[in-house]
Fold this sequence. Notes:
The protein is built from eight helices and seven strands. The protein is an alpha/beta fold. Belongs to the short-chain dehydrogenases/reductases (SDR) family.
Amino acid sequence: MDVRLADKRALVCASSSGLGYACAAALLREGVSVWINGRDEERLLAAQQRLKAETGGRVFTVAGDITTLQGREALLAACPDADILVNNNAGPPPGNFFEFDEQTWLSALQGNLLAPLMLIRALIPGMRERKFGRIINITSAMVSTPRAHMTLSAASRAGLTAACKGLSRECIVDNVTINNLLPERFDTPRQQQMAQVAMKQSGITFEQARQRQIDSIPAGRMGQPAEFGAACVYLCSDLSGFITGQNMHLDGGAYPALL
């Protein structure tokens, strides 16, 4: 399938590893010029070299923390006319709701609600003028199936989902779409972190914690990052212009509801 992206430019946030890296790799394979981002410049440069070796694509780096104005300005200055924006950031920590103070909440909202909205706000006018834009928010299964120990993630990402739903209806007339990818249990460093949390909470081994993760997925395995990247590419493609404001679950069948 020719997704007709060869002349496009993409900003992929938090992409030195994990699902952001997978999206960057998939876009590069389709001929997209990709700017990857991360806070650790050394890790970012290493990711750039791996991506070049894996894809042969045009990949550039922008070091910076997107939760800060300075970090966002650096990203936008590097590629001010991006056709594709993949919003991604490290998820807030799990834990007991009553242990989270106001500063913890503000940090979660800054990282997973306000930062992506500010990038969207900066890029949408140009996308609409050029009559092409694809915005992908990497959120979480917690948006549709909140759990008590994940209130920071559920609240901040649900807020982003709600804001983008209304905006998506306004922008689609100019061929600018906004969609959300909701991962659960992909084999990334984030799941290793969650396994470490489960070890401490339940007094189990790392292997037992990982097996619990696998057992929670009907597919009987964790998702592979490349599978996630492929879904991102389709929603960024020229062929997906009639899809907007949607939440796509990528979870091996874990989502239990009909709608």
